[in-house]
Design goal:
There is one protein chain. By secondary structure, the protein is α+β, with helices and mostly antiparallel strands. Among the domains are: 82-179; 218-351, Glucose Permease (Domain IIA) (Distorted Sandwich). Helices cover 60% and strands 14% of the residues. It has four helices and eleven strands; from the N terminus they run H-H-H-E-E-E-E-E-E-E-E-E-E-E-H. A hairpin with a 3-residue loop joins strand 1 (243-244) and strand 2. Helix 1 (2-114) packs antiparallel against helix 3. The chain starts with a helix and ends with a helix. It binds zinc ion (ZN). The site of zinc ion (ZN) has 4 residues, from loops.
Length: 353
C-alpha cells in the first residue's frame, strides 16, 4: 500500500510542481514585460514632462536654499561689523594711550616749572611788565592746550566705552546668526537628500529619452548650447557679488547638491584639475568656444591635466573641499568669455530649459 501510494502522491506532487513552475515562469515573463514597458512609458512621458518634474523638485528645495543663502549674507555682514568695531577699539586704545602719556608729561612739566604753586609762581617770577605779559600769554596757551588734551582723553574714553558695548551686541548677533545658518544648512541638506533618489531616476529617464534621439550625446544642453554642470538633485540662487569672508565678493554661483553628485563639462574643451586653498579640488575647463569655467570644492576628480572632454562628460564630483570645509556640499561655478567672469546664474537657468 505504501509502495503503491507513494508513486501516486509523488506523481501528484510532480504535476503540482510542473504547474507551479509554469505559473512562476509566466509571472517572471509578465514582470520582465512590465520592466521593459517602464522605460518606454518614461520615454513616452517625454522630455518636456520630465524636465517639468525636475523643475518642480528644484522649486520645492529652492526656498530652503534661499533661506540658507540669506543667513550666509547676514553672517558675513555681522562678521565685518565685528571686525570694524574691533579695529575702532584698537585705534582708540592707541590714541588714548598716547593722549594720556602727553597729559602726564604736561602735568610733570608744570610741576617742575612752578613747584607747589604752579602757574602762579611762574607768573610772579616775572621781572618786568613785558616779561609778565609774555608769561600770561604763554600760560593761556599752555592752559588751553592742556584743556584740549584733557577733553581728548575724556572723549576717547567715552567712544571706547560705546564701542566696547557695541562689540558685545554684534558679537552676540554673530553667535545667533551662526546658529541660524547651521540650522538652515541642515534643513537644506536634508531636503536635497530626501529628493535625491527621485531626482536621479527622473534625470536618468530624461537622459535616455534624449540620447535615443541624439546619438553620441550624453545629456540635453540648454538653448545656449551648454550642459548644466551638476547631474543630480540641486538648488542655487543668484548670489553674484554677495559679501564673502575677508572683504571678498562672490564671483560665481553655488550649486547646492549632495556629496558625490557627478559634475559634468558644460561645453567641450580641455580640463586642468588643480588644488588651491580657497577652491580645494578645482578644475579649470577651457572651452573650445573660448569660454572658461571654474569648478571648485570637488570631493574628487574624474579627469587628468590636459584631458579633452565632451560636453556633458563627468569631470568630478560635488564636495566641500577648500574654504567650503564644514559647510554644505556644493559646486562653486565661475564662468566667462576668455576668463572675464560673468554672473553664471542666468546662464545656468537657461541650461535647464
Ligand atoms: Zn561660491
Amino acid at each position: 500500500m505504501n509502495t503503491r501510494a507513494a508513486p501516486r502522491v509523488s506523481g501528484r506532487r510532480a504535476r503540482w510542481a510542473r504547474r507551479s513552475a509554469t505559473v512562476l515562469v509566466a509571472m517572471l515573463v509578465w514582470m520582465a514585460g512590465l520592466q521593459a514597458v517602464a522605460p518606454m512609458a518614461a520615454q513616452a512621458a517625454g522630455v518636456t514632462q520630465l524636465k517639468q518634474k525636475l523643475a518642480a523638485i528644484r522649486a520645492q528645495v529652492s526656498a530652503a536654499d534661499r533661506a540658507y543663502e540669506d543667513s550666509v549674507t547676514q553672517l558675513e555682514n555681522t562678521q565685518s561689523r565685528v571686525a570694524r568695531t574691533r579695529a575702532s577699539i584698537r585705534t582708540e586704545n592707541a590714541h588714548l594711550a598716547a593722549a594720556q602719556t602727553r597729559l602726564a608729561m604736561r602735568a610733570d612739566a608744570m610741576y617742575r616749572a612752578g613747584g607747589r604753586n604752579g602757574i602762579l609762581d611762574f607768573l610772579l617770577g616775572s621781572v618786568t611788565w613785558q616779561d609778565f605779559v609774555t608769561r600770561v600769554d604763554l600760560a593761556t596757551v599752555i592752559a588751553s592746550s592742556d584743556a584740549d588734551l584733557a577733553a581728548d582723553v575724556i572723549n576717547t574714553r567715552a567712544r571706547l566705552a560705546r564701542n566696547v558695548r557695541q562689540l558685545g551686541v554684534v558679537a552676540s548677533a554673530q553667535t545667533r546668526t551662526t546658529a541660524l545658518m547651521k540650522a538652515r544648512q541642515r534643513a537644506m541638506d536634508s531636503q536635497l537628500a530626501a529628493r535625491q533618489a527621485e531626482y536621479a531616476s527622473a534625470l536618468a529617464s530624461l537622459a535616455s529619452a534624449w540620447v535615443s534621439g541624439h546619438p553620441g550625446g550624453s545629456y540635453p544642453p540648454g538653448p545656449n548650447g551648454m550642459v548644466f554642470p551638476v547631474q543630480g538633485v540641486h538648488s542655487y540662487s543668484d548670489t553674484w557679488g554677495a559679501p564673502r569672508s575677508g572683504g571678498r565678493h562672490h564671483m560665481g554661483t553655488d550649486i547646492m547638491s549632495p556629496r558625490g553628485t557627478p559634475c559634468v563639462a558644460t561645453v567641450a574643451g580641455t580640463v586642468r584639475p588643480h588644488w588651491n586653498n580657497l577652491g580645494g579640488n578645482s578644475i579649470t575647463l577651457s572651452g573650445n568656444d573660448g569660454w572658461t569655467f571654474y569648478y571648485a570644492h570637488l570631493s574628487r576628480y574624474a579627469v587628468h591635466v590636459g584631458q579633452s572632454v565632451k560636453a556633458g562628460q563627468v569631470i568630478g564630483y560635488v564636495g566641500n573641499t577648500g574654504d567650503a570645509a564644514g559647510g554644505p556640499t556644493h559646486l562653486h561655478l565661475q564662468m566667462g568669455p576668455h576668463g572675464n567672469w560673468v554672473d553664471p546664474y542666468p546662464y545656468l537657468r537657461q541650461m535647464e530649459q
